[in-house]
Write a structure and sequence with these properties.
Layout lengths: L1 H40 L7 H7 L4 E11 L2 H7 L3 E13 L5 E6 L4 E7 L2 E3 L11 E5 L1 H9 L6 H13 L5 E5 H6 L1 E2 L13 E2 L9 E8 L11 E4 L32 E6 L4 E13 L2 E7 L32 E3 L9 E4 L8 H4 L2 E2 L5 H4 L2 E4 L6 E14 L15 E13 L2 H48 L1
């Protein structure tokens, strides 16, 4: 009887020990299986989960615009007063809904090339008005042309330009509809200039029916740590806009990153909208529709002056407004906009130096509303939610011979609009992601912990009982 009891206790302890050992072994083995599966599924080639979602994103992407309506145009033009603006919006468009085209795999260097078609569809239900709503905004042609071409900065040629400006009855500010401002209109002043330049002006002209690329990215087949990283853009590894390393094309397009993302990482990505590569750093952990993600945010020093961030010295330009590059929070991208005086910033000049926003009234920078962030699922590296927020500004300077600009006493960086491009994984895609990725990983982890926990408890319980029984029998 005593032998049967003791044998049973020993058998229970052995079973518990086996379960504990099995649970312990399953941990590294399970991790290896997960790693192997993820590495296989994030490769950008036919048949993988990543490739299917990469060709055509399952996420609905919207681009919302807030336009700065100038309240005192005559006062500014006559007295060089502060510009009073009032933002109106959002005016919402659906973008990035078209699948990638001309997809070509190159097995020699494990890359895949493609172009991304551009298209924007107005979404009335998500907008405060129609595309025909009118705004008082800076006259893009009048402000830009005297600063765009060196020949036009000559006093004589300014006088000639002024003739065309007066003949077209153009002024420093103009009234334009949302559709015209964003996607283009035929400018009356430019139409009179006997010079082969485009007479169509728009903040995003041309956009519809164009393509972005060619992109050439690593498919990850040979080296998973390089998957989705851009090798070349339009056939080049550099942009030819900036000096030194600032001109390099770094990282991915931000739609995804190599798997197994760590909080300590700096995520680098290239944005053609701002004509440069940029980066994001870990901000916080977020639960997105039941999926744990890391929120990476664009840091304040990304647009800092070289005095604050020496790494930015090669983004510095010699324009008057930069004050020898001591001003910060704005980026002169004129070189990649055919010489037009276009400046990029965060909305409402968030994180910009006071001298940049001082001539503008009506701005209200807010970290929560105006910062850029990426929510990245760390195991796969997929970006499941993002908000890209940018402001487009135009530099306008005094021009003695240009009638609408002759009374200006200082240069202005005039905010035209800011955009919020957002995308969030849909409920159906989120459920699929939970079932195929995070759910399986959680289940495996749960099984490992249950086996280990139950095994340890069983082993200790049966061994203690066995020892107690032996001690009792010994007496």
């Amino acid at each position: 009887m005593g032998c049967d009891r003791n044998c049973g206790l020993i058998a229970g302890a052995v079973i518990g020990g086996v379960l504990a050992v099995f649970g312990g072994i399953l941990m590294p083995v399970g991790d290896l299986l997960i790693e192997k599966t993820i590495k296989r599924e994030v490769v950008l080639e036919e048949g993988t989960i990543a490739f299917k979602n990469w060709v055509k994103t399952g996420t609905t992407v919207y681009r919302q615009f807030w336009i700065f309506d100038v309240q005192n145009p005559d006062e500014v033009a006559k007295n060089s007063s502060k510009i009073k603006v009032k933002q109106r919006g959002p005016y919402t468009y659906r973008v990035h809904y078209l699948a990638k085209e001309n997809i070509t795999q190159d097995p020699k260097d494990s890359t895949v090339s493609f172009v991304q078609p551009n298209g924007a569809i107005f979404e009335p239900s998500l907008s405060v008005g129609t595309e025909n709503d009118n705004f008082t905004v800076l006259n893009l042609a009048v402000a830009a042309v005297p600063n765009s071409f060196c020949i036009y900065q000559n006093s004589f040629f300014q006088g000639v330009l002024n003739i065309f400006i007066k003949k077209s009855k153009s002024s420093m500010f103009q009234t334009r509809s949302v559709k015209e401002l964003l996607w283009g209109y035929k400018d009356p002043f430019l139409s009179l200039i006997p010079y082969p330049i485009s007479t169509t002006v728009g903040m995003f002209y041309p956009y519809n029916n164009t393509v972005d690329g060619v992109y050439k990215v690593f498919n990850g087949k040979d080296n998973i740590s390089k998957v989705a990283i851009i090798d070349t853009y339009k056939g080049k590894r550099n942009l030819s806009y900036w000096e030194s390393y600032c001109d390099m094309i770094n990282g991915t397009d931000a739609a995804s990153f190599p798997p197994f993302v760590e909080k300590s990482q700096t995520l680098r990505f290239f944005s053609p909208d701002i004509c440069r590569s940029i980066y994001a750093v870990f901000g916080s952990e977020v639960n997105l529709k039941g999926i744990p993600v890391y929120r990476f945010v664009l840091p304040a020093n990304a647009f800092a002056s070289p005095l604050q961030n020496p790494d930015n010295h090669c983004f510095c330009t010699e324009k008057v407004i930069s004050n020898n590059c001591t001003s910060y929070g704005v980026l002169d991208i004129g070189k990649c906009k055919e010489g037009k005086p276009v400046y990029i910033s965060l909305p409402h000049f968030l994180h910009a130096s006071p001298d940049v926003s001082e001539p503008i009234e009506g701005l209200n920078p807010n970290e929560d509303e105006h910062r850029t962030y990426l929510d990245v699922e760390p195991i796969t590296g997929f970006t499941l939610e993002f908000a890209k927020r940018l402001q487009v500004n135009i530099l306008v300077k005094p021009a003695r011979r240009i009638e609408p600009l002759k009374n200006l006493k200082r240069p202005y960086i005039v905010p035209i609009l800011w955009l919020n491009e957002t995308g969030t994984i849909g409920d159906e895609k989120a459920e699929m992601f939970r079932n195929q990725v995070t759910g399986k990983i959680k289940l495996l982890g749960l099984v490992e912990m249950v086996l280990l926990g139950v095994g340890v408890v069983m082993f200790l319980a049966f061994m203690i009982s066995y020892c107690a029984c032996r001690s009792k029998n010994g007496k």
